[in-house]
Amino acid sequence: MKHRAVCSECDWTGEPKLMNGAARDADEHRDETGHAAKIERAAATDGGRVQERDGVDQPTAVDLFCGAGGASCGIHAAGFDVVAGVDKNAVALDTHAENLPGYTVRHDLTDVDPSILPERARSPAYLHGSPPCKGFSTANDGRDIDDERNSLVFRFTDWLAALRPRVATMENVTGMTNITTHFMDRVEAAFREAGYAVRWRTLNAADYGVPQTRRRVITIGVREDLPAPSRWFPAPTHAETPTTTLDGGELAEWVTVEEAISDLGRPVGDHRPQGENNGTSAARWRGRDEPSHTLKTGGTHVTRPDGGFQITDQVNEPHQKAGRRPMVESDEPANAIRAGTAPLKVPNHEAMNSNRQRLAQIEPGTAPSAAMSRVAADEPSNTLVAGKAAPPAHYRTIPNHNPREATEYEAHDYESDAPATTITGARLTERGHHESQFEGARRLTVRECARLQSFPDWFVFTGTKTSQYAQVGNAVPPRLQYHVAGHLRDEVLRY
Residues annotated as region Disordered (predicted)? Predict the structure, then answer.
């Protein structure tokens, strides 16, 4: 998707380019003239008309601090027209624009200026924001209430007061609830000052079908002129063990790491010499040793042995277990896919270089250090985190025989029934099994981390591999946001 820089103080307009190029044009124009330029999508507008789905007008939404678009993806799937995503990270915005409808706007959100938004985004029905959380994060040993990054929470409430949506949600780490005893009182007061009734709660993404025990604070605001919902937060759909609720409902068991990623098979570049370029383009990605038969046009790519492929639609009714629609809609039986006889080929599934023998010595489901962790197969992943830590190791280990004679990873003695722990940017944890007949474990790929965040396979991450890991770990799990947004759509907006 092409963007261009447009000066807000003169009639200068840059050429249509990718987000990074348009951002550079804006910076150069500012250096030359002192004028501020905004970034807007170069495609023609829709004339201000609300998009329709199944003949029903969609309520509009804006996503602030949107990053690569995890929250936007879930909000869109819940039936909203996401008219704008705003962030200052140009690389993450490229990913957002590549995958999702609506405008992407590169802007420092400490500057509360609604004029930078397209007109239809200045009075949305729904506003979401995920202010950066490093000042609160429990992974930060030097947490400080006065950390300037913490003030971004209150810039979000400033935007809330300026845009006046009917409903709003804010997502952040659990550390904001205990950095001091009164910080959340300040947050509630800011929402009320903006004119909103407010409630907050810590939600576990695993309780909503995400294969990751990612706990996040969700703050909901409902404009004071609207009736408060009878239930503020969505009911869980999953539990650690299958459960019958007091009202007779059934909660499915948490989705495990194995259920989420076991059908992916060997990543591109696995067992290849170090230094070989196995990068992914958002426009075109390759299979193992042969060119892909598809170009990325949206949907889930499923490349079959005969070279055919199918593209499934975006998740609106996610898969019963893995938080997504069935990966295969063809005459290939699903068990053949899982057995490796009809391997899936998806974007961002490339191996990274790592010390496999050392990784295989890590106890499954543990993290001896930020750079050394593994996910367990039989439970959800721990939280995936954004940062400089390496992604977790896979729960499977590699058979100690000629890798070029191996097909897909067969099922060996490994544990495989739990969701992942929280995924944080470039880090994920995994449980695996190491025995003498195995030569080691590998790091999870970007796609495997994305699966553990509940991203659909058609969602392509752009930029360097390091950036891709960070984009995944920073994201709101789409499946979690789908439930939150859908609940508010039904309970408050009543669409």
Answer: 122-142, 265-312, 365-387
> Do residue 410 and residue 297 come from a single domain?
yes
Q: For 11-68, how does the pLDDT look when each residue is reduced to its tens digit (9 = 90+)? A: 888 887 766 667 778 878 888 888 887 777 664 333 322 334 444 579 999 999 999 9
Q: Are 224 and 309 found together in one domain? A: no
DSSP letter for 237, please: S
Question: Which residue in 215, 218, 118 sits closest to 168, CA to CA?
Answer: 218
Q: 236-240 long-range CB contacts below 8 Å, 24 or more apart?
A: 236/207, 236/208, 237/207, 237/208, 237/209, 237/483, 238/206, 238/207, 238/208, 238/209, 239/207, 240/206
Report how far residue 112's alpha carbon sits from residue 4's, in angstroms, rounded to the nearest whole number.
22
Measure the CA angle with vertex 422, ends 268 and 387; round to 5°: 70
The count of other CB atoms within 10 Å of the CB of residue 16 is 14
User: Distance between CA atoms of 335 and 299, rounded to whole angstroms?
Assistant: 22
Is residue 470 domain-resident?
no
Whether residues 163 and 98 fall in one domain: yes
CATH number, residue 171? 3.40.50.150
Cα angle at 197 between 175 and 73, to 5 degrees?
60
**Same domain membership, residue 70 and residue 29:** no
Q: Which residue is associated with the tokens 């990966």?
A: 327
The CA distance from 219 to 233, in Å, is 10
On whether the CB atoms of residues 26 and 39 are closer than 8 A, the answer is: yes
Give the residue numbers annotated as catalytic, written as ranges: 133
Quote the domain boundaries for residue 215.
54-251+480-493
As for how many domains the chain has, the answer is 3
State the alpha helices, DSSP H only, in 330-400.
334-339, 356-360
